[in-house]
Amino acid sequence: MTADQQPPFRDPRLSLERRVDDLLGRLTLEEKTALLHQFTPGVARLGVGPFRTGQEALHGVAWMGPATVFPQAVGLGATWNAELVRRIGAAVSTEVRAMRADDDRVGLNVWAPTVNLLRHPWWGRNEEGYAEDPKLTAATAVAYTRGLRGDHPAYWRTAPVLKHWLAHNNETDRATRSSSVRPRVLHEYDLRAFREPVEAGAVAGVMPAYNLVNGRPNHLSPYLREKLRTWTERELLVCSDAGAPSNLVDSEHYFDTHEEATAAALRAGVDSFTDHGTDPSVVIGRIRGALARGLIGEDDIDTAVRRQLTVRFTLGEFDPELDPYRDVKDIDSPRHRELARRAAEEAVVLLKNDGSLPLTPGRRIAVVGPLADECKLDWYSGTLIHRSTPLDGLRSRFGADRVTFADGADRVRIRAEVGGGLQVPASEAADEQRGADGALDPALLAGRTDLPPLTCGEEPTTFALTDWGDGVITLRAPDGRYLSVAEDGYVRASADQPGGWVVQETFRLVPHDDGGHLLAHLGTGRHVAVAADGVKVADQGDRFEIETVERGEEAVTRVASDADVVIVVAGNDPHINGRETEDRTTLALPGRMDRLWRAAHATGTDTVLVLVSSYPYAVPDARAALPALLWTAHGGQAAGTALARILAGDVSPAGRLPQTWYADDTDLPGLFDYDIIGSRQTYLYFDGTPLFPFGHGLSYSTFGYDGLEVAAPADGEETLPVRVTVTNTGARAADEVVQIYAREEAPRVPRPHRQLVGYARVPLGPGESRTVETAVRLTELGHHDVAHGRWTLPGGVYVIEAGASSADIRATARVTLPGEAPRARAVRANGLSAADYDEQRGTEIVDRAKTRGDAVAPVGEDGELLFRECDFGGGVARVAAEVSGGPGSVELSLPGGEAVAALAVPATGGPYDHTSVHAEVSLTGVHDLRVTLRGRIRLARLDFSG
Q1: Half-sphere exposure of 855 (CA within 13 A, CB side)
Q2: Which letter does DSSP use for residue 177 in this model?
Q3: Catalytic machinery residues
Q4: Residues 574, 378 contacting (CB under 8 angstroms)
Q5: Can you name the CATH fold of 27-41+66-314?
Q6: Angle 154-267-232 (CA atoms, 0-180°, nearest 5)?
Q7: What pTM does this model have?
Q8: Given 122, 253, 800, 919, which is the most exposed site by the fewest CB atoms within 10 A?
Q9: Which of 99, 162, 617, 535 is closest to 351 using CA atoms?
């Protein structure tokens, strides 16, 4: 068949829109319906192959075998280096393409990056985000998606989908919890992280989050239509999160039937349903049921299929001979290995240094702690091809004879009440797990049932017990294998690392009333018991005595006493106490890890604390006592090499904190409080003194700032030019991260203390100067005006600051900008939308209707809303409240306590059954208005008339 005989959708000379429309028109309704599940069948009669949405690629290709593993996303955020992140995105998408060539299970629609802002450091998925700041997050996401997309004008290397739309920062009750997000926070904070990457043109779509926002599931978000799809002319693909469509009925009870739920999600803009795994029959049956009931029409299905086909054409599926990426074979290349090392180096943040670093040659080094000889992966990592731990890196850099090691674990023997002590039996199968280098092969370990289970005997095995906090422990056999429980319930020493969706390697010691402990297995919720055929988990556990052979602090003291410097490496395992499905409960370093640095410090040996973690810790005592502290996210395959090069001074550290490190849990609001303005969250609004501020990070050199220039924009210009000169005033080559902040000098509404508006990571030789220029968009200086429902730039004086962190400002300039004059709320003409309050107490925003709109409800018996500067003009005599729920009341008063009106709210029949209640009022001029809500009511709006 010649090119002219091919159907139009096969003709690359035609426009993308024409080709998509042609293919769409050739599909039957049944074929189109089948395309709405994540795993789509092919259409053989048209030569269309199967397709699936979704390939995890957060910091490397995940779940598909050996791949280059880069630092966690929060570590990439800590580099403050957009160009580096773009190159990493390109490397990751190159490996996706290479793996796809050999394995058609590998998808080209990649679900990455995660752009949820790191609002609260207890969030279990902190490791997946880039920063607490929308500017830094958006810029990093733009870079990563551009790398994933590739630079061909027509064909994309991969098609990135941003996660997770919208305002998602808690794992606790994540499928049923609603985030109350006031309009200012929505527009100034959460939406910004998504908007800039979409506008940059390298995003194929988004994935809605499990949670609800303002009472409405994200899979029904009206903002998909009202915001997301207005930011670009491209067709964007919205892929549901796994199982979320079923949650609309099963856990959220938002609809009575799955047909209603599926229809509502489709109409809201969900185009691909990730539900029931690889089996599409359930979802397709629901769509057909919705069609039969008239809940959706064929045009709704066409809209979703068109968006999916657009992505498939863009990926070159229908033009294989023209696809520029079809022959990509690059996996684990020297270029990718070098990129992984550089990223790991640039992610290291030097938190404190009183001169102990860099390490001088010839010193004897003790490296200790539970992360000292670990290269941890997380849920979204690929399989390591290369592995470098801090111990590996330090021995390689300084010589194995100069470096000693202690993992800091307690050595314990566990004796059952009857039967003797727990033993790990010898096994040839276990020996076969080791490679030529002696390392355990993770591909052979987890869930094995061919190894013998633990037994009991007179000579108990000595286990290494590591406490990861909150009483969660792991136990390792002398050869390094973790105790694990397989599907048959037996306890074996069989795991290279804790891992899996349900971790089977974690336990908790539970004190027994008669002395000793029960050993609870957290993965199954059962207890360890001794049986005739081996140790297993059971409903009723046996009582054990724990004999401590050596405490971890004793081993640390021993090796530290014989060293010139001790490096304590502590932190988290990404599969334990803070991960997807599990939030943290504290910022504190686990108690036993805290004792390790104290033991090392007590010897009088120089002690450096390295925190390797997915999130911040509160370590005020360590900051006060120790000469040097560093932090790095889990740094991927080159983590140990990178850390050693930083400690040795081969590279000057230049990572910067992408989120605030607080001094104590009391600095934090509740995990579910999404109002960063009202509860004073993140560096933007936090009123206290952080342990380490946003943007903080030290260097082995010093830098001077000079000549900050800000020019007022001419009429019609939309940017504010900013220039500052930075000079390396030290003796070492180093990078400085120049940070530009802005603030309104005399705001009339709560505004950030300062907000990031630009940054640059600048390499400088000793004595070298460079002028950094940035153009600040004027819109970034504005805010969402709730009084008038739009974005506004108030006129007045703005302060532009340049510095080394949000708390280390080195140069300041002022500029007067024209803008809008302040205006009171025209409430007589426009009324008051309840959610557009200025301040609140004890309320939450809820859904006014299932499709769109907001209302406000008290959380307890009552709640208050405050509306500033309400203009009642020449006078109003009547107020009408749109309410639902009930019974209860709406009471209006002036802030001084003067009552204005009281409106009784009868029971309306349900939360979506609205009614209007009225009362007489007498108000003229401009006043602040307080509205008190009592009872189980929802207030949507207030309207005033003369």
Answers
A1: 26
A2: P
A3: 241
A4: yes
A5: TIM Barrel (3.20.20)
A6: 30
A7: 0.96
A8: 253
A9: 617
